[in-house]
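G., the chain you wanted modeled:
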Amino acid sequence: MTNSKLIWWGGVGAIVIVAAVVLWFFFSGGNAEQSTNITGSSFGSGSTVSVTNSESDGDMVNNLPQSGGQVIFKIADGPIAGATLLETTRPTSTVARYMKQENGHVFDLTVDTPGAIPKAVSNTTIPGIVKVLWLERGSALIAQYIDGVTVKTAYLGFPVSTTTATSSTKKPVKIQFLSNNIAELAASPDGRSIVYLVRVGASTDGYTARSDGSGSKRLFSFPLSQTLISWPSTNTLLLQTKSGAGVPGGVFSVNAQTGAITPLVYAEGLTATANSSFSKVLYQTVRAGSPLRLTYARDIKTSKDAGLSFDPFPERCVWSASATTTAICAIPLQYVPPNFLDLWHKGGTAVFDSLVSFDLLSGKSEILASPGGGDGGVTSNVAEMALSPSERYLSFITRGDRALWGVRLIQN
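Predicted structure as tokens:
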């Protein structure tokens, strides 16, 4: 371990959380364990089955027609487990693909064709979905659901229609059941690989695999169990401790090939997100007893922080892929207390949000849409967001009823 790392960690003092990390860095030499192939009942070793789809679903909810002039429009009634936006070239259109929470059925709806109706993609039944991770440009997903006290995980690869001169057929859905009780998971930017976390006592092991869970290998080990993972950039993962107002935490980068872990930020009440080039990390801190939330942009090359005049919640933002220093965030329209995120995660508070874009380089911000106002829609507490590949559209799922809405970011 280098002297600079010892100095960096030494400033943390006697805090138990960081002490554990210091010991781990000392005995490991500052680097994560090199990747090791996993055998036996590892992630992705479950059985593979095929399920044939039908073109309709008996309990399919009719989509509400779009109003041509509105920026915000409804895509589907809730509860929706997860959604993504796809783009097709024949014809050129944007499609919302979404999974229903109660049964796991998947539908497509063309969002730039007024009056379009949903088309069934999969009628594979998986009740009680709690998390959806979209893969391979929306052509596959991983769904997590609760079976008793066990968290189950399954990969679904969707069929592609095959057309010949005499017939048109659809291949069945590929389903791969994965290991139980995966704590956290994320997809690579191209959706062809995944990273997932397994809690081992008070520690965490991180694994990478192909999108269907095959070829898994251990990438790193970390001495804390309450951690979150994301994969914002092709070669770099973002690992962070779970946040709480006034609770010490850390943010780290992880090399996606070697598993080497580098500390980036240490602070109280810490939440963070990184852009697609991993040149900027947007993070927020909430100190114990402080009436303020402090938000910064860290430049990865210089390790310098720039204080921000606006106050977004990093975990409620999505990054532009084309303008890599621009984030779109759901921002409450009213005052919220410093411990808002703690209350929000517990379901103890509801807010009405606007969608605001922020450019970290210029410092400029712009209100893109306000649900329930002149842009259309209804007042909304935004839970999840997704951008279309061309960034002409944004989708969001509302907290509570989990209805799916669309936003036209670029008007025709």
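Residues 1-67, 162-168 have pLDDT under 50 and may be disordered.

Shout if anything looks off.
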